[in-house]
Amino acid sequence: MTVDALTDVAGLRVGHATRTGDGWLSGTTVVLAPEGGAVTAVDVRGGGPGTKETDALDPRNLVRTVEAVVLTGGSAYGLDAASGVMAWLEERGRGVRVGPDPAHVVPVVPAACVFDLGRGGDFRARPDAATGRAAVEAAAASAPGAGVREGCVGAGTGAAVGRFKGGVGTASTVLDSGITVAALVVANAAGSAVDPETGVLYGELLQGRVRYPEARVHEAARRRLSEIAAKSTPPPLNTTLAVVATDADLSKAQAQKLAGTAHDGIARAVRPVHLLNDGDTVFALATGARPLDAERPLALNDVLAAGADVVTRAIVRAVRAAESVDGPGGTWPAYEELYGGR
């Protein structure tokens, strides 16, 4: 049974650590691979990224698999969360073996951050190594194939998409070949996920099942957003992060292609995208459980197309699952609050 989440790729687990109140509105999300790791690649297209260990994922370089990927709030400060994940992995002997002793490992933990500094009121309230450790422990404690919490949790706690509250979203699909492709996103974009003329989510326009809001609902939402904009102008420093995963057997080069085409899924759901003040980053993980069809040289295309589709759906779900925030760091209404689920 599938749960329409990243965890539908067998062996992957997701854990969140969330901090709110007392100046906090941030957190960390960890994607934990099966023991032994998953083939991992990355594609960074935002003009202001905050990342760690992404060079190790270049197909030309040595490291082939990683044990975990960290998505975190706190801008570049929050990348310290990866240290807590590294320590947890080292204690279990999981990482790149660097000596004759099985305990001599170096866990390579790629990480990327979103900007949410000060959104809870305290600029210094941001994730650290302890937050990362809490998130990976939550992932390890989850059951195989468990559902994934969405909305204002983990790295999506302080996320915003334009004037709306953002968050975490996830989605999956199973191809005719039996291969699973899934995504988890942290939607935190400088651009908007909402068409200003109609109030429809851009990502839903591509799904063919759009119900347009009534004119009075849309007008009321526009008035509310204008009132909020008149009161505060938070810095438009953002980032959309994604992990797209599959159980297909991919090389690092193929995984990097998957990460690259998955950015199309962001571009369908957010406009504009990949700006200088975004840090848009997509990681791709492949667990290798299912081989691609050797008789079809272009079999990878099905995985690539599905990767972009699930990223779009995950962004839609992130925005719809978000809850409104009105606090000392700013006001971000939830899409569902303004549009009533339409």
Average the pLDDT over all residues and give the rounded result. 95
- What string gives the helices and strands in order? EEEEEEHEEEHEEEEHHEHEHEEH
Portion of residues within helices: 25-40%
Biggest sheet overview? 6 strands, mixed
Biggest sheet, strands in spatial order? 5-3-15-14-13-12
Q: DSSP helix count?
A: 7
Alpha-carbon Rg, integer: 19 Å
Structural class: alpha+beta
Rough outline:
globular
Portion in strands:
15-25%
Number of strands: 17
Ordered list of secondary-structure elements with their pairings:
Elements: E1 13-21, E2 24-32, E3 38-44, E4 51-52, E5 65-66, E6 68-72, H1 81-91, E7 96-97, E8 105-106, E9 111-113, H2 129-141, E10 160-161, E11 164-165, E12 167-174, E13 180-187, H3 202-205, H4 215-231, E14 241-248, H5 252-269, E15 281-290, H6 300-321, E16 325-327, E17 330-332, H7 335-339
Parallel strand pairs: 6-9, 14-15
Antiparallel strand pairs: 1-2, 2-6, 3-5, 3-15, 4-9, 7-8, 10-11, 12-13, 13-14, 16-17
Helix pairs in contact: 1-2, 5-6
Notes on the structure:
The structure is a single chain. The chain has 342 residues and is an alpha+beta fold. It contains 7 helices and 17 strands. Strands 5-3-15-14-13-12 form a 6-stranded mixed sheet. A 5-stranded mixed sheet has the order 1-2-6-9-4, with helices on one face. It has a two-stranded antiparallel ribbon with strand order 7-8. Helix 5 (252-269) links the parallel strand 14 (241-248) and strand 15 (281-290). Helix 1 packs across helix 2 and helix 5 (252-269) crosses helix 6. It is globular, with a radius of gyration of 19 Å.
